[in-house]
Predict the 3D structure of the following.
Amino acid sequence: MARLLGDWRQGTAYMDLAQALKALILDGRLSVAARIPAERTLAASWGISRNTVASAYQRLREEGYLRSRQGAGSYAALPDGAERAPRALSWVPGQAVDTHIDLTCASLPAPEPAFSLAVAETATRMARHSDGHGYDLVGLPALRQAIADHYTARGVRTNADQIMVTVGAHHAWGLLLRLLVRPREPVLIDSPTYPNALEAIRSHGARPMPVGLDDAGWDVDLIESAVRGTRPAVAYLMPDFHNPTGLVMPDAARRAVVDAALRSGTYVVVDETLSEVNLDAGPLPPPMAAYGRSGAVISIGSLSKTVWAGLRVGWVRASKSVISRLVAVRGPSDPGNPLVQQLIACRLFETYDDLLRARSEELVAQRTALTDVLRAQLPQWRFTVPRGGLCLWVDLGAQLSTKLSLAAGRHGVQ
């Protein structure tokens, strides 16, 4: 236990000890139901007072991280509703955080002046639509066409009737889960992956089936074996500037994964929210939809990472039949797509390529600043500079992630 705790003392002794023990439980380094050393034993190991240990244990009991039985000792626990890291530390959209710096949301401020100009022009365009009811489940025709044209320019011929506009990419993923996956069915995912996508699978009642990435990226043989063995309804993948590793899936791997999915009847849902955050402007393999036949590949995207998360405009690119079925899934309880945001998005797509270039220049400067500081201040941390995306995946060299998160919180960093 002393080895696992490491150097836990920062301020108030019993509070620091309680936080360190909680970190071990959330990390999984201390398993639920594992017996905790007696107060006297732990106090002797650290050369601290028994009262300090007793106060720390009492704090953990109050928070639900420790359960004690008379004569049977104390055991690690998780309070009701708590989850092991990373979910316990993941950001919930809309959650207020009392911090000075928030690193939990990979998003940027709106690009100016382009965004303000688009908003100003929308007031004039809005009047042209005011004679209708304004309720829309599939998307403004002009915006669907703009998104379709953008896919065609990327090498995947697309018609407007293959596009559904959604309230962000997360909304799109939730709709696809409702349409394609029954409760308790397996969903193949990368590991690690975007935490909120994983949470959506669990909330739907489906079973995540993680396939690990290594330093080289995707293990195609492992994916093929998993798809062949379990025949999941859906495989959720992020092949372009993967969140959080920043990796890009090679052309041959894309082809092999789609072929395996076709053989097993599995839909491949490709999250392309970061596909155009291409910081080095290097060539990318064709979108995975270019390899699919009969609508086996479904793409989801949004303007959250390239423009602004507050705009809440996303989309699904799929076969016409899937789009029609998605409309039925949304149904009367879905408030639909706000017209104002769609009109702003239409205006932004008119100069989207210029906007992407400006964004890349901004992000390249930020990436350089971050990596320079890490190399100078934390040379023991190891990382590969990503070609794109908004994440830097760092090997800390030890199991320190939860402890680091807790320490960062004390310094106003979420």
Observations:
- The longest strand covers residues 207-214.
- Residues 139 and 165 are 5 Å apart (CA to CA).
- Residues 84-99 have pLDDT under 50 and may be disordered.
- The radius of gyration is 24 Å.
